[in-house]
Amino acid sequence: MTSEMTAPALRCVGLTALHAPDAGVEDLDLEVRVGEVFGFLGPNGAGKTTTIRLLLDLLRPDRGSAEVLGVETRAGGPELRRRIGFLPGDLALFPRTTGRRTLELFAALQRAAPVRREATLDRLGFPRDALDRAVRTYSTGMRQMIGLTIAFQHDPELLVLDEPTTGLDPMVRDGFLDLVREARARGRTVFLSSHVLTEVERVADRVALIARSRLRLTATLDELRARRPRTVTVIRRDGTRETWEHAGDPDPLLRRLAEERPLDVLIEPATLDAVFRAAVSEAGP
Amino acid sequence: MTFSRPIYRFLLGRHFGVAAALAAVPALIGAVLGALLNTHLKQRATARTLIEGLPVFRRLVDDETLDFLSTSGYLGFVFKHPLTFLAFALAVGAPALTTPAGDRGRGALDLLLASPVSRRGVVRASAAVTATCALLAALGPFLGAVVGALVSGRWEEAPIGRYAIASANAAAFCLCLGAVALLLSAGAEDGVSAARRFSAFFLLAMLADALSLLWDDGAWLRWITPGGYYRASETIAGKADHALHFGALLGAALLAWIMAERVAERRRRA
Question: Best label site of A13, A92, B112, B167, fewest CB within 10 Å?
Fold first, then answer.
């Protein structure tokens, strides 16, 4: 078994780019396993896009290293990038080129049959008659759909998607999330950068949170929720109510509720949003 | 494989139309010159007096090397017309400055470079497109001279073979300009800053070339600009040092291409 076969899909160690054009990253240690959907979260300007650019050798680090699919990013070159599908956060296509020509150009560059093109366009509900129009006539959402199709069409081993739902309406977002689930079912790895937490929550196996250029936490969604307190409200039989926060092991909470025998209990689930806000607050202003 | 054919074809599709339209500019100038040629030759004596009386014009059209009012000199003016120089600069500047600098500035380069193509591959594809546009642009004045000869009915007197060599010299000049534009593009953050630098380079080079013709003590200036090695009058008059002119222009172009690749490869940001 080669090291490439056993290696994680993505790994970076001490990755640092302090003078990046958008936002820097500092001492980033990250590992994404093969076959998982990994949510990379953070507020605007936290360093998500910079991290992605470093992973794809679109930006060279000050120090540290990055490996993608078991290969050092810079050394991997074009052969490595054949195995990756990428959607940039600030997607810029060629305005005078038609959607069809754009997809054909990238299929030719990817040097692989666009086996998932039709399925991707179907899932996203892209109007086929629009494919022969120039990209400049497209709405933001339609351009994003073309960008997603470029990333998915050759069924790459790794999908790196930076803010993939920008400009998409709720129906298309659902279609996109289906695409991500289907990719995972085929054993593909998806690295999903977003600040739309509710979407990441729906598909991600694990998440990492970056704020102020540093990685703040990495966890599964369940681990993450368990860390945060739930708001528990008890309505007693005498009409009084009490609210408190509970975190961690649920057993003590269940015992207490059993003893009190309340009329009603409200437990508000800890959303990823709450976790996100707490972690960002801890990172400071 | 560091040369990307799909990118070459795509970029050529983006720029071929503009380059062809720019090549038509000297062809049209040639047609106009052809239409005026007989009129001017009839008034040769008057025109000669005018030229003699305007030493600045005489030097700028290099009348000492090639009689401006001869058929070959008059039709050959299409190779030296200011609009021809402008067409050359635009034809090679557009593709070289658009990729990589223009595409980098608006974010499209990231998408290209995240696909299986290297930075060097993109620069090479852009260089190849620039070279194709250079050849197309250089064909313009040749077509102009041929059209002019046909329109004027003086085909027999037109040195078509020498025009062809002058056109090849123009191609080498355009290749050199395009390579410089590509080098500036490889290092610039966006198309606007690359275009500014290229415009400054082009204007200074043209100014130095003009000065070398007008200023007696500044003749050496011609040797430091690409224009100094694009000598249409000398070529048409049969007095050109082809080895020096072609060697300098193609050598400088090659050097600039190599440097452009290195600059692109060494950039922190793709």
Answer: A13
